[in-house]
Structure formats: structure tokens, C-alpha cells
Amino acid sequence: MEIDVNLETWKDVISNPSSYNFKFQGINIPSIIDEKYQIRYTGRKGQDNLDQAFNFYQYVCNEANISELNNPKVLDFGAGWGRVIRFFLRDTNEKNLYAMDVMKAAVDFMKETNFKGNIIKCNELPPVPVDLKGMDVIYALSVFSHLHESHFSAWMHYFKSILAPNGKLIFSSRGYPFLNYLSTVKKNNPKDQWPHFLEKMGDLEQVKKRYDNGEFIFYPSANGSDELKDSFFGETYIPRAYLEKELSKYGLKLLNETNSIKLFSQHVFTVTHSDEK
Predict the structure, then answer these.
(1) Is 85 helix (H, G, I), strand (E, B) or coil?
(2) Which of 42, 70, 86, 99 is the most exposed place for a label (fewest CB within 10 A)?
(3) Would residue 146 count as lying in a domain?
(4) Do 214 and 241 meet the contact criterion of CB atoms below 8 Å apart?
(5) Residues 6+ apart with CB under 8 A from 24
(6) What pTM value is reported for the model?
């Protein structure tokens, strides 16, 4: 079910749902949480936050050829308060949308916004207590930029098992844009918000060498959170060379990579089954 609306109008509908009385062409449009809570998830708020989500949504649609799919099943892994998944109400029935997060607060926020898709509270590791087989699109925006390698591995195995035969898995991670940003901070503004990371990381030029050598790099940063523990949550850098070497272990292969999505400084990877015909 793809509704008849151009993208710019759709962005306005999602960004200003109250102006449309939270309805558009018979579809329930979720509300938007308070900006003071938005910033906890992405460091962004307001229209800037939704613009970034919209740009990522457009990229996922293009990578997955979503306009050619009939009522695709879409999973947002690490959905936060649901800022991205709501855009897919344009492309499929709300019953085919799945928003999953490990944080109870995120799940509660999604429910409060009146998002009518499937909302799932997951654990830090799979499996998930819901049958998710046959997902046409799985995406994770700024999730694998934070998870330990053991958790990356576990979720790759799981996503392989629920991805539809020609499905696409699209996820992001830290890379050179953030490393270069940290280099600038270290040189010009050491009192920026990242000093504790800079201390943990040490010589950034050595970190870049490790990245260039295809090493999965993780630095813990959860600061004792109940749901996001230092043992698995932090700042993560996954290079293309690592994926090209390791994805085959999960029965997956790399299709594409970009770091040019507007308003988004992470590397984004598109993956599918390695035995895709």
C-alpha cells in the first residue's frame, strides 16, 4: 500500500502531524515527542532531527527499491522514539512496520506517539520474542556505531535468519568522518563533549591505521547505564575491509557503502544474502 503523496509533502506531514490532525489519506500519523527528549537519542532536535531521519529514509528506499515491493515488511532496529520508521507509512501497511529497541523508555515513547505499527522491546542480544521472518528491509541507524563486536556478530546471524530472500539490511557505523572530527577537536577544542573518548582512544593516527587495516574498533562509553552497559555499548568503527572479510561467515555480502547522506556523518552499508540470485 503506497499512498499518493510526493516526498516533500510527506516530509511536512510527518514533521507537522498536528497540522493534519494526525491523519493523512486515512493513515494515522504519530505525534512527535518533546525536544528535550529527542536530543537524548541523537544529539538533535526539532526539524533538524527529522530532516536527518528523512534523508536516511530516502536512502533506504532507494537501496531497497521499496517502490517496487508490494506491502514490504520493514524493521527498524534501534528505533528510538520512532523518528525514522514513521516515514515508511507512505510505503506499506502499518501492520508491516516493526520498531524495536532495547530501551524501555524508547518503547514507551513510541507507544505515547500513537505509532500503530509493531513495537518490540528486545534484549541486548537476539533472539526476539516475536516472529520476524520475511523482512524485506532491515535497517539500523546509528546502532552498530555503538555495539561491541560480539553483539554485531550475534545480530548479523539473527538478521540473516529473518531477512527475505531478496531483502536488504542497511546499517551505519563510525568511520573517517568522525575520526577526522575528533582530530579537529583534539587540536582546537579539547574541552568539547568528547574528552573521555579522546583519552580512551589515545593516538588517533594509530586508530586510523587500525581502521585502514580492517580492524573492528570498539571503545566502551555507556557510563553504567542499566540497559546500555559498558560491556557492549560504546563508540564503534567498522571499516569496509572488515565487512568484506567477515560478512560471509553470516551468509551475507556487502552490496554498497556511502558516507554522503546529507546531515549524517557515518558510513552506511547495504548488505544482502550472499547466495542471492
Answers:
(1) helix
(2) 70
(3) yes
(4) yes
(5) 3, 5, 13
(6) 0.94
Interval 88-129: pLDDT, tens: 999 999 999 999 999 999 999 999 999 999 999 999 999 998
Rounded to whole angstroms, how far apart are CA atoms 209 and 13? 45
Q: Does 142 reside within a domain?
A: yes
The tally of domains found in the chain comes to 1
CATH code (residue 88): 3.40.50.150
Name the nearest CA neighbour of 137 among 64, 195, 197: 64
Which 3 state secondary structure label does DSSP give 233?
Answer: strand
- DSSP class of residue 175 equals -
Backbone angles phi, psi at 68, to 5 degrees: -95, -5
Cell of 186: 583534539
Encode pLDDT of 247-267 as tens digits.
999 999 999 999 999 989 899
Q: Long-range contacts made by residues 149-152, C-beta under 8 angstroms, separation at least 24?
A: 149/216, 149/218, 150/232, 151/124, 151/125, 151/232, 152/216, 152/236, 152/238
Contacts of 97 (CB under 8 A, 6+ apart): 74, 76, 85, 88, 89, 117, 118
- Does residue 211 form part of some domain? no
The answer to whether 81 and 50 are in contact (CB under 8 A) is: no
Range of the domain at 102: 7-176+229-273
Residues of the chain below pLDDT 50: 277
Q: Determine the Cα–Cα distance for residues 191 and 138; give it in Å rounded to an integer.
A: 37
Determine, yes or no, domain membership for 129.
yes
State the Cα–Cα distance between residues 274 and 255, nearest whole angstrom: 10
